[in-house]
């Protein structure tokens, strides 16, 4: 199994410095974000689509470091009730799929998104439970009027370009756990699959290796991203605790470097479950731990992956 890294975790680095650093860690694959102003820190998405020379240059720089691009990530909200915002993200998704096809990259990652609660809505409305009668009505409207119409088109577009879409199981999105992923996949087809990132599944109390086995061929991509519950805050607020991103000491859970939220036994079981379903992609490290510098956290995670993942020579 190959080791990957989400390149955005090193944003602020010069591209060649980041590539050199990752190659020294025996990393083989990159997920490259397209959701910011620049792709791979230096290129614009529209320029890469229009200019074959820039595409060749990007690939040459990546390959010179002994790396390959295994996915492009364009995370955003394509279902936002603000039509302008939704259309901009839908356009970015389409362009990312086109770029992936041009470069022979098989996977694009994205969020499923979250609509509002009506035609007049201004903000997304995430329905995660049926505590009130209105919630079921809202969810039915979202799926019939927004989720399925968009993702039917998007899945067809991706399949036409021979690209798979890996939707991160992400709270705040209409696809946030294995069942909601399968609901969408069953409706729109196998071009849509899951990006399994354990960090948001831990605090939902999902049995993650069992979820991987349940999803089976619907697992299109894996991120290695850890998290840890904070009991001192959990006792007061529970897991659904909206706290601003930088105020991590007040959160009831926090992102951790791989191996520092959950020990090596979990990660062994997780990788084994991926092997059981025949997952052939890379194990892509994502770093967001506030206690470690990004490069330090990635190095620690890469060392753990090397110790538990099967050799690429097998």
Automatic annotation (TrEMBL):
Source species, domain of life: Bacteria
Gene3D superfamilies membership: Divalent-metal-dependent TIM barrel enzymes (3.20.20.150)
The keyword Manganese belongs to this UniProt entry's keyword annotation: no
InterPro entries associated with the record: IolE/XylAMocC-like, Xyl_isomerase-like_sf, Xyl_isomerase-like_TIM-brl
Keywords: Isomerase
GO molecular function, one term: isomerase activity
Keyword Isomerase included in the entry's annotation: yes
Residue ranges of every copy of the Xylose isomerase-like TIM barrel domain listed in the record: 51-306
Protein name: Sugar phosphate isomerase/epimerase
């Amino acid at each position: 199994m190959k080791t990957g890294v989400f390149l955005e975790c090193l944003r602020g680095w010069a591209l060649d410095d980041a590539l050199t650093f990752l190659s020294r860690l025996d990393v083989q694959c990159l997920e490259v974000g397209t959701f910011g102003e620049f792709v791979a820190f230096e290129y614009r998405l529209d320029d890469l689509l229009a200019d074959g020379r820039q595409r060749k240059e990007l690939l040459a720089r990546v390959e010179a470091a002994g790396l390959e691009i295994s996915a492009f990530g364009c995370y955003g909200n394509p279902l936002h009730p603000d039509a302008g915002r939704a259309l901009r993200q839908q356009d970015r998704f389409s362009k990312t799929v086109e770029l992936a096809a041009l470069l022979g990259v098989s996977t694009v990652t994205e969020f499923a998104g979250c609509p509002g609660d009506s035609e007049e809505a201004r903000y997304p409305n995430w329905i995660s439970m049926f505590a009130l009668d209105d919630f079921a009505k809202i969810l039915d409207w979202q799926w019939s009027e927004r989720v399925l119409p968009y993702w039917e088109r998007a899945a067809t577009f991706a399949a036409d370009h021979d690209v798979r879409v890996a939707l991160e199981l992400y709270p705040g999105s209409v696809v946030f756990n294995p069942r909601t992923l399968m609901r969408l996949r069953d409706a729109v087809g196998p071009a849509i699959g899951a990006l399994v990132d354990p960090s948001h599944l831990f605090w939902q109390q999902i049995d993650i290796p069992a979820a991987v086995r349940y999803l089976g061929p619907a697992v299109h991509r894996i991120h290695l991203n850890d998290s840890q519950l904070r009991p001192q805050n959990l006792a007061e607020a529970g897991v659904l605790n909206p706290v601003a991103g930088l105020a991590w000491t007040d959160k009831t859970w926090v992102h951790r470097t791989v191996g520092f939220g959950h020990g090596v036994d979990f990660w062994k079981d997780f990788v084994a479950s991926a092997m059981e379903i025949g997952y052939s992609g890379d194990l892509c490290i994502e770093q967001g731990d506030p206690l470690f510098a990004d490069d330090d956290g990635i190095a620690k995670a890469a060392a753990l992956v090397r110790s538990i993942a099967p050799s690429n020579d097998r």
